[in-house]
Design brief:
2 copies of one chain form a homodimer.
Chain A (H helix, E strand, L loop, with lengths): L5 H10 L2 H11 L3 E2 H5 L6 H13 L3 E6 L2 E6 L1 H35 L2
Antiparallel strand pairs in A: 1-3, 2-3
Helix pairs in contact in A: 1-5
The structure holds a DNA duplex (30 and 30 nucleotides).
Amino acid sequence: MDNYIPALDVVFHALADPTRRAVIHRLGSGEATVSELAIPHNMALPSFMKHLQVLESGGLIKSHKTGRVRTCQIVPLKLAVAETWISKERAVWEGRAERLANYVENIASEKK
Amino acid sequence: MDNYIPALDVVFHALADPTRRAVIHRLGSGEATVSELAIPHNMALPSFMKHLQVLESGGLIKSHKTGRVRTCQIVPLKLAVAETWISKERAVWEGRAERLANYVENIASEKK
DNA sequence: AATATAGTTATCCATATGGCTAAGTATATG
DNA sequence: CATATACTTAGCCATATGGATAACTATATT
């Protein structure tokens, strides 16, 4: 638990569900109301709302209500944090792979 | 559920836990045995093993047993799939942001 | 004013998750 | 051979998750 980033628990959990990923994807092409977002999902509204709550409390989306309509939009930051974490991890083992490649290369050239 | 990638359910779920992320991080600096991996985690071994099973069944790590010792290593592919998904989503709304910026810019220049 | 619309709240339910202890198996080591 | 080591398996438990229905609130519409 070296450099534990609590936000990642919540972000990765949010992304672990296909309904929620679909919502993120949909919001990529612009704001949408709760009903609009719900349409493609074969699920009762309260069930769907729970997914929106997971996304919003996790900071991946935000929403505002005008009259009786709630409109949602994406919040870029958290996705970026998740991507950065993965990217850094990959950088580490890619670094290792590179060093290993160099090592193999050195062995090879020493044999000449 | 347009372009639903089932692997992502499993990968993001695996990454949603700090213990599992720590294991991924640790394996970034090379192979390790189950006991070695378990040391930093204040948890009974069977509990810890469950995390390894989540990682392995999700394809994020693999392991082989020699004698009574099981050694684990990272499998790059799944992390890459997860990073790619996020990256593509970001590209979409960054594209939008860019178009919006252009639009605003055009409005501004029309005012000249 | 009456009705339709768009969420929201309150429960409920089955299953999954993340932790535990106790006991078992297989391989080293003394 | 006896014992220690390194997992494994089996079961238990509390809480979280993802779904549902029923009833409610607050705005539009007619």
